[in-house]
Structure formats: C-alpha cells, structure tokens
Amino acid sequence: MLHFRQMTLIPVLLLLPSVAIGQSLQVLDISQASKAEVRSLTQTGGGWWLEMGKQMVLWEAEAGRALSMPVLASYAAVDPAELLLRARGCSDHAAEAGELLARGGRWELRRVPLDQQQALRLLDTHAWQPVPRNAQIARQYRLDRPQVGFAADPAVQAVVDRVDSVRWFGDLSTLADWDRSSYGTTELAAARDWIAAQFSGLGLTVQLQPFSMNAPGGGTISRDNVIGSWVGSSEPDRWLIVGAHYDSRNASSSSTTNTPGAEDNASGCAGVVELARALLPSAPRRSLMFICYAGEEQGLIGSQAHVQSLIPGGQLSTIDAVVIMDMIGYSADANLEALYESNASNLGYLMQFGAAAATYVPALSVVTSTNPFGSDHVPYLNAGVQTVLAIENDWDIYPHYHRSSDLPTNMGPNALAMGSAILKTNAAVIAEIAGVELPALFADGFE
Question: In degrees rounded to 5, what are phi and psi of residue 23?
C-alpha cells in the first residue's frame, strides 16, 4: 500500500483558527457509545469536534464539561494552529513528526510545532493536511445502521457461501513464496503467470496489460497488470472491477529480495482470485474484470495505467463499480473490523458494504471513511468512478508491515476469520450489483 490519495473531508467547514493557548483537548473512546451519545458530543458550544472512527476528539473552549464516555487522553494548553492531520501508510517510512494525539480511518491527529509545519507540508503535501473542525474523518457504520435489518437474498447468500478462507490463505501463501517487487524480474513474472493461470482455469479471458515505470537506476522498465474478464450473461456492456495489487516491498522500496508481502498484498490479490471463484458459478448478469496490478508500491502506477486505458474509447462510463482490496487478513484480536473507504460522492456505495456485513457477516464491524488515501482505489476515484477500498482496520499496528517478516505465519491466528469476513462482505455487494440468480440446481432448495 502506497501513500498517494484524494482527500475530501466531510463536512469541510472553516479551518481551525489560531486562538489563545489554554484550552483543552480530549480524546474519547466512542466504540460503545450510542448514536445519541455521539451526537451529544457535537454540541460543543465554543469548541469543536473531530470524529475519528472509534475515537472522538473534543477541543473545549471551556474546560469542565462532564463526559460519560471513557477518556483515552487529555491534553492541556492545546493551540489548534499546531494541529495537523497526517495520512498513515507513507511509503518512505519517514520519522513521525510531532506528537500523536488521536487516530481514525487512515489519518492521525498530531500536534506539530509551527516552525516545523511548513517543511512537512512541502515535503509531502499529500500526507500532511490542515485540520477541519466539526468533521467526520471516519464513522462506525453501526451508528447509522437502520433499526430494521435487510433480509438475506438466497442468490447472494449462495455466492457468499462459496468463499473458502482456507483456499484463499493457500493462494496467499503461494504468492508470498515469490519476491514480487515491481523492480524485480523473474519472480514477479512467476507471480504474474500464476495469477493468469488461475484466471484462465476459471474460464476468464486473460490479458496482460503492459505499462512503463521508472527503473531505480534510471530509464524505464515494463511491467504488467493481469486482467481476467467475464462477459455478463445479459448486460455485457456494464462492468464491475474487482482489483488488488500483487507487487510487494520491504522497508527498502527498491529491494528486490526478501519481499514476501503476505499481508501487503498477497492477501488482496488472492482475494481477487477467490472472489472470481465465488461469483462465476452464479453467471452474473453484468460483466466483471478481475485485475491484479503491479507498480502499486511505486506510486499506484498499474492502476493508473488501467484507468488511462479506459479513457480513449469512452469505457470509463461503462464501469458501474470498483472494489479494491489492500491488506485484508490481519486482525490484532478476535474482534474483526474492516475499514471501507471512498469519497463523499460515494457515501451510498460505502453504506452498501456496511449493510452487507450486517446481513451476511454479522461478526464484522465496519468503519467507513470518505477521506481516501494510498491505494489503487484513488486513480478510479480521481476519474469519477464509483470505487471503494476494503482494508482491515488493524493494518497500521501490523508489526510486519513493509518488512521482510511479512510472512503468512506472522499474520496471526485471526487471519482466516478476518480475510473471510471481508471477502464475504465484498462478495455480497458485488453479487448484488452484478446481479446473480440461484443456479437451477438449487432453485427448489435441493442439491
């Protein structure tokens, strides 16, 4: 996962003014709070709030308000002018500036001395952003979940039930046996050819899409996206894309060895193959492209190349929805939680994933964010295509992120459950949009 992004904070109000120092900032745990309790926190009088998923930041103009939620941290004498949002997941692994105060979605709230801010913003204008006030950076889906749930669709349930987490993890392990740096050659090509063989074996039409990228020592090199296409049974001109990057890295962005990339992102790439297995037996009415991209770690180059290839023939307008998966297998504990990320115009699409999890995978808690950053969903969003990123919500505390130790065995005891939960949620949404029916063999309830 890399660090380029498009950012749309909701709602975007006035940027924080510089005020007299002396007011307090508190970080509250709202993981168990009700919708009414969270709403009450937004009534701040002369202060402001920032909702960051399971955390709520309150800057109080007057200290002393009684709070019913647990206080995770309290800071005195906070000048809002010293606050910045920092995107998490920067590829250069630069030293973290300032003091971490809160986090949510894929953003951190940090207190950074004023004399350091300009240099940081110039160094990476994507990763460092001014802080809005009274805004949602990330939101727990349960706070907006309808009181009356949705009934499971038997045809969609059949697709969900085909997801096999053991098979997915086996494919993940196969991919992690190769060094898949996009600066490499032989092993990246071996992974590429293995993906193509899986697609071909499922009856997909396979295409290798070449693109050029800069080589570490100068000049350019050619790499390939792997595309497997299914033509819809009744709406062949309407398309959905299921994608993930298959390249990997370690702490050195140019290293071509010791780059197993099990979680980042053999997990997502194997997920693309597994979703093809789950969806195709139901002969979706709309067409599907299953894509594994190279060049993600060097700047989303493969996904950007695919988006650009759709423009000349007007094909972008035929894409109804895109689902990107990046790091879907790690959970620090048995509480499974996924982050679904898009931009503000796709809020309804985001809500579909929350509803699908509630209906088909109730063990999965969903957090949504309309502040996208750092993966292959961004080129599609920038092109105006309805796109969502699925990522497990503990990725930022995964101890082997961008390390040579990112091995299948280090993904922990919850990997099968975590991967299965995200894949089943994604399978449900894709099946709903693509349109599926129960195979005739099962229509009467008997196999």
Answer: -80, 165
